[in-house]
Automatic annotation (TrEMBL):
This is DUF721 domain-containing protein. Residues 119-138 are annotated as: Disordered. InterPro entries: DciA-like, DUF1159. It holds the Pfam family DciA. It comes from Bradyrhizobium nitroreducens.
């Protein structure tokens, strides 16, 4: 047996979640937009409710300059709103203000401002409808002698879907 150098055991792996590693980067980006906490953006659907969050998202918070000796004035929350829903969201302003201030635990937001623009997040893609049963049957006839019925049915559905597209 030859003597080679000492054998080193690997130490424990100290992997950290990406969110923790990028925390300072995100905190700085959100602070530039006036958000004291990024949770208003990341948890918007829970705070505003799914109906409102589907058509509006927080863009930034505008804080008024503090006046020495005066209490801090509430901020203006700027929301990006999809075109035709802007009026509906504007009518829900009181509900949104109440929910946001309840989330913060104090009257952090005093009014809302709206910017009409497409939302920045991608819209969920709709699942295509299943193929027409007649076209599935037609494709199944052309498959020939496949003994496994489940396989034949799956291939017929796949063929009909491909032909449709």
């Amino acid at each position: 047996m030859s003597k080679s150098g000492p054998i080193f055991k690997p130490g424990p792996i100290s992997a950290k979640p990406l969110g923790i590693l990028l925390n300072d980067v995100f905190a700085e980006a959100y602070a530039k937009q006036g958000f004291a906490a990024r949770e208003l953006v990341t948890r918007w659907a829970q705070i505003a409710g799914p109906e409102i969050a589907a058509h509006a998202e927080p863009l930034k918070m505008q804080w008024p300059r503090p006046v020495e000796g005066q209490p801090q004035e509430p901020a203006t929350l700027v929301l990006r709103v999809e075109g035709p829903m802007a009026l509906e969201i504007q009518h829900s302003a009181d509900v949104i203000l109440e929910r946001v201030n309840r989330f913060f635990g104090w009257s952090a937001v005093g009014k809302l401002a709206f910017r009409q623009a497409p939302l920045s997040r991608p819209q969920a893609r709709k699942r295509p409808s299943p193929p027409d049963p007649k076209s599935v049957a037609k494709v199944a006839e052309s498959l020939g002698a496949i003994e496994d019925e489940e396989l034949k049915t799956a291939l017929a559905r796949l063929g009909a879907a491909i032909k449709r597209n």
